[in-house]
Amino acid sequence: MRNDEQCRRIADHVIETGDDHAAKKYGIKGPCSLSELSTIDIPRSFPPDAMHLWWENVIPDLVRHWRGKFTTSAQVETVESLIADDIDTNDGPDNQPSQRLPSNSRRCKTTPAKTNTDGKKFVKTNDEYNIPPDQWLQIGKDMAKSSITFPSSFGEPIRDFAEHCQHLKAAEWRNFSLLMAPIYMKNRLPEEDYTEFANLIDALHLACNYTITEAEILVVEERLKRFVIYYERRYYCRLWDKLSSCLPVIHQVLHVAQAIRWAGPMYVYSQWPMERVCGIIAASAKSRVSANRNMGITIVLQEQRNHLPYVIPAHPDGDLNDEIEDDDGAVLLHRLFGRRLAHKDIPSKSLLTMNKSSGTMGLPKKQGALGAWHRRALQTFLSNRFNNVVPLDSTPKNCVRWASFSSGVRGLAKKTFTIVSTHMRRTNSTRSSSMIRYEFETDVGMRYSGYGEVIFFFSVADEDMNLLRQYEPRVHVGDDEREHASRNFAYIQTFNVELEDRLLLKTGLGRKEVIQVDQIVDLIGLMINEGREYIVSRFTCLF
Fold first, then answer.
1. How many domains, in total, are found in the chain?
2. Which terminus of the chain is less hemmed in, N or C, by CB atoms within 10 Å?
3. Binning pLDDT at 50, 70 and 90, where does residue 542 land?
4. What is the mean pLDDT of residues 53-76?
5. Strand partners, 360
6. By residue range, what is the domain housing residue 131?
7. Which of 229, 263, 297 is the last residue of a domain?
8. 255-260, long-range: CB within 8 Å, 24+ apart, which pairs?
9. Are residues 319 and 360 both part of a single domain?
């Protein structure tokens, strides 16, 4: 890779001599304005962006190979053959084939839309890695069925891939490659291609993680080199008519590991935040005639509003219940904004009922009593936890039911998630956020993961928990955090799961149990594939 000095020397040479041959050879037409900054070091200051490299180029191009759409000539020939076959099937009564009509005839215009759509998006080729169109249609149907079990915090709503594969956004390609493709490509791709694709996904997880070690950088480097070698051998095949498969982004993959050594994990310099800000600014334009001026004024007003807390006291003079208007009816802005700032810190939709490391129970809440089956499940949990038999009569009966649970404390925890109970779920909620992964400890000290769906959250009174301390000899009385956190529980429907290679398959329903909310470690979803349900987490479906 060329360094900063070499890049600048080539740029100066092109400008001074007008050498078009050097400009085409090195891809440098001259120095840019940013090169005048002393802090710019080419190419260290421009590492590969994860969004554009992976989710807008490498992954979509790889899927185009599987769809049979990468080679243009094969695509056109296949589309025409599909239309021709459809016309030839309409033979006359004397078994004489009907006369083929020109492409602009009315007969071709009335060709069923489904045939044209399938031919345009998916093409059957002789490549071993090609997936037939009917398989893509099935994948699209299964993805649409999985939309209700795909939590909203995981990203964009799932769309039918067969209908929208040409219009997916980068965020949708990310979810498809990390959470769906390993499931849907299993047993559809040849074993060699699926193994190499899983190798690429493992490299992406490491490269885009929040933290990465030197040893993991070496792993990323080896995995990406392995992918590039596989790509050239499998898709390029060193054939002249497949030379278009050798894209510049495939070569750029080889420099990802070095860029991580220079600038850190790929999320640090990802363009997701910039694209989000650009979208917000573009949406603020209300004038087509003076769009730039309109957006500039909107940004200034927004920043002025953000600076109000620094110029207006949080507690204005007088009581918060004072009128915000003077005797003449004019609005007193310092009282109006002061009152709003004072009420801003009061939580309105959640109540902190646990320690900071565990999370919060969310409103609304409802007073109630535990049923017989609920109390038996709680009795079983308490007996296992205390390592002692807890009588059913001593099990708490009254409780407070909560609508949701949020992990961590927002603003303090790096990653948070919110679990919504199925019994207190909003009626207009179309995507489930009730399925969880939790951890439990065996008698020998081994920790395992369990999976299930939260039916409802509940907490019991401190007085009832204190009565149970007689059955808990292992807990210190002075441990306030343990006592405070132990009163919050979740009544769940457990799942039976089975590890299928590296995919986690839900095989059925288990029993209903009670767990503590601090046992919940992750929010999960379900992806449907040919009638089978596979578990996915926020960032991966490979376990």
1. 4
2. N
3. very high
4. 83
5. 406
6. 50-84+116-263
7. 263
8. 255/1, 255/48, 256/48, 256/53, 256/207, 256/220, 256/221, 256/224, 257/207, 257/217, 257/218, 257/220, 257/221, 257/224, 258/1, 259/47, 259/48, 260/47, 260/207, 260/212, 260/217, 260/220
9. no
